[in-house]
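USER: Write out one fold?

ASSISTANT:
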Amino acid sequence: MWLRWMAGLALLLCAMTAGAAPSAAADVLQAKRVELQAQLQAQPFGEPLVLLSHEDGKRLDGDVYAELAQPFARVGEVLGKGDSVCGLLFLHLNVHSCVARAGAAGEQLTLSAGPKQGASAATVYSMAYAMRVEASTADYLRVVLSADSGPLGTSDYRIVFEATPLDGQRTFLHFAYGYSISTLARLAMGAYLATAGRTKIGFTVLGKDPGGRVRFVQGERGSLERNVMRNYLALQAYTGVQAGTPQAQTDARLRAWFALTERHAAQLHELDLDEYLQEKRADLARMATGGS
């Protein structure tokens, strides 16, 4: 019996390494959807979406699981190319440029980010993400972006997109974002959260205060949740616009992203629409002339 079990396990491992792994991964992702079904159906965000976050003192990680109202083929079309991944990441109000370049080891995305207004060379930081399409089949897609280092000593950045089709018009998506935090970054974040960011909240409900008001997560974990949600909504906005000239599509995606974030204004509102568009158009003009 033991020998038969070991032989079966060996055959399974061989099958996975021979190409069955994406199908197994699709099954795992579908199983996660079943596990989260009650939360997805409750639609606390106004759509079938679950946001999870974790902080262990050294690392911050956030995950979104959602039933996206876009065909799997459309999601794969967007996430399979560096240019379109850059396009969706650019919608985030703190991202000032993103450029994709092909290299010997695959595509590299160079992303510049900084303050949402009044960004200068002294306040903008640049990050280089290696992009890998780890799986792309008829029922499963996995795209990973990784960066060894970030601002203020942060490290081990990882962005993961996973998707599997639900039907002809819907896709089950997993978006993950995380990084390891440094002492310097923690001190800087602490100073921000004690001043300008002291009233900012995330999405996870921790309970109620003595007055009966809902108490949301704050601090570094709250900041992570806001960024995870902004990037998920960027994918939603980007995939939802397909018609028009490139300039018209960019404008429509900016407006769509802003409208989606305003549904969660308590957590995500930072600028008025005109201010956001003005900032983004200035960023696009700099990118067109080769600026960062």
Observations:
- The chain is about 45% helix and 30% strand.
